[in-house]
Amino acid sequence: MESKIDTTLVTRAVIFAAKAHDGAVRKGTKLHYIVHPMEAAAITAGLTDNPEVITAAVLHDTVEDTNTTREQIEAEFGSRVAELVAAESENKREDQKAEDTWEIRKAETIKHLLHCTDRDVKILALADKLSNLRAIYRDYRNFGEDLWDRFNQKDPKMIGWYYRSFAMTCAELYETSAYQEYMELLGKTFCPDPEETASNQVLFCRVHLPILKSILKNPESRRWCLNHSAYDRDTTHPELDRYFRAFISEAYRCGMIPRNYGELLQDLNPDRWIRDPRRLQHFLRKQDGPHILACIAYHFRADHFSEGSLISDSIASGILSQMMAAYLEKAEREA
Prior knowledge:
The chain is mainly alpha-helical. It contains 19 helices and no strands.
């Protein structure tokens, strides 16, 4: 099949970006900076064949990090490309130190993307952040804790907060391999602090709730959840299979699922819940937060007892989404 990508436009953008970034390197490395926008463009090309979006990916850091202006981008590549590049550019506040403005700049990015309805902007942002996260994961394995010294923000907890918060802004892309890779790397790179269980669970809910709602809206996805165990590989819907694996791993890490999950289910003796519903209500009242175990207990069926299928079943039923939404409302009221 013939490609729809306007290679002339993309090629011109590559030449333009290479000149604009000439001499620049990635933070703390000797790697030529142009490698990053090229990688972001490759990720973008896997998400769309729109040449303007791919071109914007190549150029996405030119306005933010070089002397290039939006007007130059528009004159060379058109108004849509300029619009997309501008959407991906931070207000650097050049009159202040970068480390002093890091948090407010990242908060502005999250707020902007949360309210953004332009899918192309979110594709561009995901490609950029996935490229960055790949580099962080790779370099952390090589340099360990010394890695954080190269960044303006040197607290890995804050960097983790940013990348976790970003995940919820692009939840509509959850079916794409790029988003799934992002979630997998996120879990491997930034492990939640066990001393911050409540905040970890709030962020978990904010990230995954919109995704779960999207799954529930799709009858085919919902049926898949009802019939699938999250612990058995399935090739009929690889995007859902990969998402659920990331979901389960993240749920364990932030305390949504206790480590002794299987033992607890056995010890709770579900047969008693069926005979005496008051036992189930007592168990649910003891749960603090949107605990997945509580959702499973509530939705338990005696003839459907396998860890993975119970989790999927609870998601498909909508009970997990309801509990997560209620938990978020409570957390926001108490904030």
